[in-house]
Design brief:
Subcellular location: Cell membrane
Number of strands: 26
Protein name: COBRA-like protein
Helix content: under 10%
Strand content: 25-35%
Family: Belongs to the COBRA family.
Radius of gyration: 25 Å
Distance between the termini: 26 Å
Shape: globular
CATH class of the largest domain: Mainly Beta
InterPro entries: COB_C, COBRA_pln
Bound molecules: 2-acetamido-2-deoxy-beta-D-glucopyranose
Largest sheet: 7 strands, antiparallel
GO biological process, one term: plant-type cell wall cellulose biosynthetic process
Amino acid sequence: MRFLVTVLFLCIFLSCAVAYDPLDPTGNITIKWDVMSWTPDGYVAVVTMNNFQMYRHIMSPGWTLGWTWAKKEVIWSMVGAQTTEQGDCSKFKATIPHCCKKNPTVVDLLPGVPYNQQFSNCCKGGVMSSWGQDPQAAISAFQVSVGQAGTSNKTVKLPKNFTLLGPGPGYTCGPAKVVPSTNFLTTDRRRKTQALMTWNVTCTFSQFLARKHPSCCVSISSFYNETITSCPSCACGCENKNKCIKSDSKLLNMVGINTPRKDNSPLLQCTHHMCPIRVHWHVKVNYKDYWRVKIAITNFNYRMNYTQWTLVVQHPNLNNVTQVFSFDYKPLAPYASINDTGMFYGMKFYNDLLMEAGPSGNVQSEVLMQKDKYTFSLKQGWAFPRKVYFNGEECMLPPPDAYPSLENSAHPSRVSISTLFSFGLLVFVVMWG
Ligand SMILES: *[C@@H]1O[C@H](CO)[C@@H](O)[C@H](O)[C@H]1NC(C)=O
Ligand SMILES: *[C@@H]1O[C@H](CO)[C@@H](O)[C@H](O)[C@H]1NC(C)=O
Ligand SMILES: *[C@@H]1O[C@H](CO)[C@@H](O)[C@H](O)[C@H]1NC(C)=O
Ligand SMILES: *[C@@H]1O[C@H](CO)[C@@H](O)[C@H](O)[C@H]1NC(C)=O
Ligand SMILES: *[C@@H]1O[C@H](CO)[C@@H](O)[C@H](O)[C@H]1NC(C)=O
Ligand SMILES: *[C@@H]1O[C@H](CO)[C@@H](O)[C@H](O)[C@H]1NC(C)=O
Ligand SMILES: *[C@@H]1O[C@H](CO)[C@@H](O)[C@H](O)[C@H]1NC(C)=O
Ligand SMILES: CC(=O)N[C@H]1CO[C@H](CO)[C@@H](O)[C@@H]1O
């Protein structure tokens, strides 16, 4: 028993420390600096951020990037982004730098800025799509002109201590590393040029660092049992229970009640789970060769429209998805041998916007899966998802013993063996991964 507890603790501790997401083991945000030219007192670099996470995007109000200069560098100018503070530039007389802070904080510009302030892939208010949903929009870039810096690849010092908010906490960035220089093709693709020097920084996400509680929960039901297993109580923490709003409250008619806050703080509808998002999984029909599941996502946050939302589900039958109605679907196969995870997201201009809490605050889909006669079962909760993520954050599932059952057959021993096994596997993956 003590061993088990130690293993569990180690596993939680380690998996948090390395920010490891088993459903997206290579997911990260990479920040690349390409030095394009040396200047009399420094260099001009193009900074490109790529979101390589399959299903975790950066939503409004967007990313905030920070670092600490290694020497006394200043930013003469920026195109396609800006620092939030200029800092103390009183030492400068003729030309005043854009930023003199030792640890600049950079944000994207908003859409529609004047043409001369734009840069390719800039000016999206810091919003970045996930790689799985739209790789072309999973990128953000700006140009920075650095002064009082090294002027050759021998003397330049890499910036240190990178930080990334996306938009909240959760990301940890590694050190900048010099990598082979990026190659660029001219637009006619007939000439190749290369950066004078390139360095990369990799940032990874950990839900444990992002927030204390989950931000979504799962409820389940089935056609074969009237029981609706609701989300666990206080799944997302009940500290703010006194600040929630009842769905029939007169306050909801007040002007401005839906206006988002700068820090994205929620205004929740009162529920026993206190989650901004609930995912409902209903086993709807059992045909001879197929079965059908209905998925509904409900928003309980009056102050948030979820744009470009994503839903990730792990279920053993997702290797035989025959049809997904009214959502887009993409299988995710993080490990080539297991094909049990997939990503659902809204169709552009149809339901890629999950509206604020209220009558329109939900999106729904149905999934048709072909049965594998050796594995398909309505028993022991097999038909319910193993893991659910909304916008890249893991949702709390109800405990398996609360699942609607087909008959009164419990097999506790089997459950504990499989639990043991998955712990072992997780520890193995964490230690060796
Ligand atoms: C970052 O993600 C890319 C794409 O998935 C992957 O190739 C790369 O190895 C990752 N980098 C790290 C340091 O994990
Ligand atoms: C550096 O980052 C870019 C993406 O910005 C990526 O394509 C490249 O593979 C990275 N290089 C290394 C060595 O990680
Ligand atoms: C620096 O530039 C020299 C040539 O000017 C090159 O040989 C060397 O590999 C470069 N070093 C780095 C770290 O890019
Ligand atoms: C970077 O962060 C580490 C740990 O947080 C700190 O010890 C170090 O002084 C920082 N470096 C700079 C240059 O700020
Ligand atoms: C959500 O979007 C609708 C329509 O675009 C808009 O009227 C509403 O104000 C938005 N709500 C929030 C919380 O941003
Ligand atoms: C995974 O299953 C989906 C069907 O749900 C299929 O389209 C896809 O090709 C499979 N991928 C692999 C790697 O087997
Ligand atoms: C429905 O599921 C509940 C919870 O597992 C169980 O207690 C009940 O016996 C089931 N009812 C039927 C008719 O199978
Ligand atoms: C019944 C059926 O179509 N089974 C297929 C499910 O998916 C696996 C792997 O993707 C196939 O090998 C099966 O034939």
